[in-house]
């Protein structure tokens, strides 16, 4: 009986596996055949810019991989900007329609796309924008357009920037689970949420200055394209002068209140179409397939662009995690490639493991001995993110980049009170005085705390030294702008933490100038496995992703955000050089 059951199970398993392989083969054939087709872009077309997926700096997909793009959750900033750049010089594309976005991107990424759209418009082509509702970041992007339109019953959010920090002291007291915190830095925000129930004056000051600097950058850009003074824009924000479509038009934030069919009539008019002619749209996703095949920069000499994005953890790393494995491998390849004459390190990270940060810093230092290394900062390059950037020959930041946060800390969970409350008693046995280093169920001993504090101070001094050497500043000068404080890109320029304000293209151009290159191509590192490959290698991971999505739907965004912060904390090992907390700027 068991033999028959096992035999039938084997047959069913084989059939199931064959079915999966057959489906994969059909998908492969379909993708290969479709990749051979040229994306059809008709004359007198509009590029429809809809940014519905999360934006990462770089997806790392291989254009030759037929599975590239399959099951990818994000879209690459580099691909979006390249598509706009190609469209700028494509005679078939007459204009861009920014249509009903709900952009999931950082401010610096949004600013980079906005700048690229400005270059497109400078070529004499039009940009129109329409939405049923404009969130604040969506409006910032749309404000580059020649004309902005909104649905008659739509909503426009324009009220200034804010952020929220969660505090856990009372939760610890009620649960009996406490976070033991050891840190260095006058700005105690790095661990403040575990120690206090309220925001300190120092933390409130730094966050207020940071938000004000980011907001100033936004309204400076909006003021130029909408011809509204910055003071008037602040009045509009303070009075909620754009809260209805009618008020938004009266305040000058938008040009007209129309339904979508009326908006399409305006697009048809801009294209000078006859009454019965249809508008030719080219979607961004389709156009990216076309633009990715276009080589904008070419030459035997190359500039390597190494993308480091995500939190910093010890290990291999991946598309959304910076590990010393994948990043150092990319830096070594770029350093040893004779055709690569300069390296641009693109950093988009709130930091993480101090050890990993130093390992990557060392590889940057080795590369710098051989060829120029330029850093381009994305949305955030703070703490460990700044650590790996500090040794470069030159550092570029966007005005809206969040950087600095030069400080380190350690957190250790302690469950003594919970153990007492539920009747757990832990007894330890060891061979030597310090053999039992630390127990979750016993109060932290001074000897252990002093040991960790010594490591924190040593790591902080090493951090200061790395920055001091890289930025040609004294240790005292670095310490005065460190202490865990965060700065905007604009502020960082003023205090000497960055050299210039600019985007990735500006950093690449600077690298070419330093390396004395006239013509050059660009090589991007690292190459990641496609989303399809990752799912096939780790079906459990795909299952976990599905569970996470279901959990998010069930408990809501706010509760899910708290859960993710706690999960991220659980992964932190060793001394941390990271942003003080997750800044969700709205």
Automatic annotation (TrEMBL):
Keyword entries, A-Z: Hydrolase, Membrane, Protease, Serine protease, Transmembrane, Transmembrane helix
One Gene Ontology CC term in the entry: membrane
CDD domains registered for this protein in UniProt: S49_SppA_67K_type, S49_Sppa_N_C
The UniProt record lists the keyword Transmembrane helix: yes
An example molecular function term from Gene Ontology annotations: ATP-dependent peptidase activity
Record: active site: 188 (proton donor/acceptor), 383 (nucleophile)
Localization in the cell: Membrane
Keyword Iron: no
Membrane spanning residue stretches: 7-32
Protein family according to the UniProt entry: Belongs to the peptidase S49 family.
The protein's name: Protease-4
Source species: Maribacter stanieri
């Amino acid at each position: 009986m068991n033999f028959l059951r096992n035999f039938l199970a084997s047959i069913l398993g084989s059939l199931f596996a064959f079915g999966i392989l057959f489906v994969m083969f059909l998908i492969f054939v379909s993708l290969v055949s479709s990749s051979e087709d040229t994306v059809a872009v008709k004359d007198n077309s509009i590029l429809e810019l809809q940014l519905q997926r999360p934006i990462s700096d770089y997806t790392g997909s291989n254009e030759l991989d037929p599975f590239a793009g399959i099951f990818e959750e994000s879209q690459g900033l580099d691909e979006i900007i390249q598509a706009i750049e190609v469209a700028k010089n494509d005679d078939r594309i007459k204009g861009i329609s920014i249509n009903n976005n709900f952009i999931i991107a950082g401010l610096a990424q949004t600013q980079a796309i906005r700048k690229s759209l400005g270059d497109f418009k400078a070529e004499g082509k039009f940009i129109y924008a329409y939405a049923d509702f404009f969130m604040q970041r969506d409006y910032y992007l749309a404000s580059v357009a020649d004309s902005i339109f909104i649905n008659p019953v739509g909503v426009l959010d324009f009220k200034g920037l804010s952020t929220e920090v969660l505090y856990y002291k009372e939760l610890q007291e009620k649960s009996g689970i406490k976070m033991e915190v050891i840190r260095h830095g006058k700005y105690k925000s790095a661990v403040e949420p575990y120690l206090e129930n309220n925001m300190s004056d120092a933390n409130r000051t730094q966050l207020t200055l940071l938000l004000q600097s980011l907001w100033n950058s936004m309204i400076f850009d909006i003021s130029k394209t909408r011809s509204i003074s910055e003071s008037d824009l602040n009045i509009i924000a303070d009075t909620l002068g754009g809260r209805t479509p009618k008020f938004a038009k009266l305040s000058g934030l938008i040009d007209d209140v129309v339904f979508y069919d009326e908006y399409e009539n305006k697009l048809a008019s801009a294209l000078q179409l006859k009454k019965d002619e249809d508008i030719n749209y080219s979607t961004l996703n389709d156009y990216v397939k076309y633009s990715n095949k276009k080589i904008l920069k070419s030459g035997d000499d190359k500039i390597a662009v190494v993308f480091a994005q995500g939190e910093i953890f010890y290990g291999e790393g991946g598309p959304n995690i910076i590990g010393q494995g994948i990043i150092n491998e990319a830096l070594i390849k770029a350093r040893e490639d004779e055709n690569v004459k300069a390296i641009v390190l693109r950093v988009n990270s709130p930091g993480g493991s101090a050890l990993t940060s130093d390992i990557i810093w060392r590889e940057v230092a080795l590369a710098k001995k051989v060829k120029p290394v330029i850093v381009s900062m994305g949305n955030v390059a703070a703490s460990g993110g700044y650590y790996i950037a500090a040794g470069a020959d030159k550092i570029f930041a966007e005005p809206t980049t969040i950087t600095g946060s030069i400080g380190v800390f350690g957190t250790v969970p302690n469950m003594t009170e919970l153990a007492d409350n539920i009747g757990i008693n832990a007894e330890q046995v060891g061979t030597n005085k310090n053999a039992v280093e630390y127990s979750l169920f016993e109060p932290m001993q001074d000897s252990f705390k002093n040991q960790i504090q010594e490591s924190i101070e040593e790591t902080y001094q090493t951090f200061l030294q790395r920055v001091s050497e890289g930025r040609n500043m004294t240790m005292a000068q670095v310490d005065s702008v460190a202490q865990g404080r965060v700065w905007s890109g604009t502020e960082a320029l003023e205090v000497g933490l960055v050299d210039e304000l600019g985007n990735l293209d500006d950093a690449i151009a600077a690298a070419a100038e330093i390396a004395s290159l006239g013509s050059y191509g660009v090589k991007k590192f690292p190459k990641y496995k496609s989303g399809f490959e990752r799912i096939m290698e780790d079906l459990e991971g795909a299952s976990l992703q599905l569970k996470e999505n279901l959990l998010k739907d069930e408990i809501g965004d706010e509760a899910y955000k708290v859960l993710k912060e706690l999960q991220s904390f659980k992964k932190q090992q060793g001394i941390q050089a990271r942003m003080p907390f997750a800044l969700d700027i709205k």
